[in-house]
Amino acid sequence: MTASSSLGRQIAEVTEALGNAGIPCALIGGLALASYQVVRATQDVDLLAPLDMSETIDGMLIQLGYRCLHRDTNAGNYVRNRERVDFLYASRPIALRLLRNARQITTALGPLCVVSAEGLIGFKLQGWVNDARRAQDLEDIKALLRANRSQLDMNEVREYFRLFDKEYLLDELLCNLP
């Protein structure tokens, strides 16, 4: 995927508008996986941003031509033609820390802030715990563990699994890694 792709232009437009407004954001979801050696097809942009900026984000996206599909204190979902951007709003200490510690990396889509691999695992785990039909989240966790095990802070990863009373699952996943 190149920065000239439709998805690349969409990410650049949204993150530039947020940056110009001084709103921190970080890539999460399927696109962020590529930053940690996991590639899978996805068509939407998932961003983490502070809850206290959600009103400003909403207005900004409306100005960019997006239509709000849903918005509450946890998330906002927007669509423009075939383009979709989803926001997860950080309000809890862990999510705010992950946003604050996101690192800027050079990607095929240009420079982007991306949450840590550990943080992605935590968000994927939360998504799966909230809806066990989201099997792709569990597959993404497995792929992140497989590709990054030697670099991961396993204490941090274990803490996310502990938060959801799923430490046994982490142990199973680690035992079954190739």
Mean of pLDDT: 92
The CATH topology label of the largest domain is Beta Polymerase, domain 2
Instruction: Please state how the strands of the largest beta sheet are arranged side by side.
Output: 1-2-5-4-3
Q: What number of structural domains do the residues give?
A: 2
How many helices? The count is: 8
Distance between the first and last residues' Cα? 28 Å
**Uncertain residue ranges:** none
What kind of oligomer do you see?
A: single chain
Order of helices and strands: HEHEHEEEHEEHHHH
Major sheet description: 5 strands, mixed
Level-1 CATH class name of the largest domain: Alpha Beta
Number of strands: 7
CATH architecture of the largest domain: 2-Layer Sandwich
Strand content: 15-25%
Helix percent reads 40-55%
Question: What is the global morphology?
Answer: globular
Helix/strand-derived category reads alpha+beta
Q: What is the rounded Rg?
A: 16 Å
Could you explain the architecture of this structure?
With 178 residues, this protein is an alpha+beta fold. It has 2 domains: 1-115, 2-Layer Sandwich (Beta Polymerase, domain 2); 116-178. The protein is 47% helix and 22% strand. It is built from 8 helices and 7 strands, in the order H-E-H-E-H-E-E-E-H-E-E-H-H-H-H. The protein has helices at 6-20, 30-33, 54-63, 93-100, 117-130, 135-148, 154-163, 167-175, and strands at residues 26-28, 44-50, 67-71, 75-80, 83-90, 103-107, 110-114. The strands form 2 sheets. It has a 5-stranded mixed β-sheet with strand order 1-2-5-4-3. It has a two-stranded antiparallel sheet with strand order 6-7. Strand 6 and strand 7 (110-114) form a beta hairpin. The radius of gyration is 16 Å and the shape is globular. The two termini are 28 Å apart.
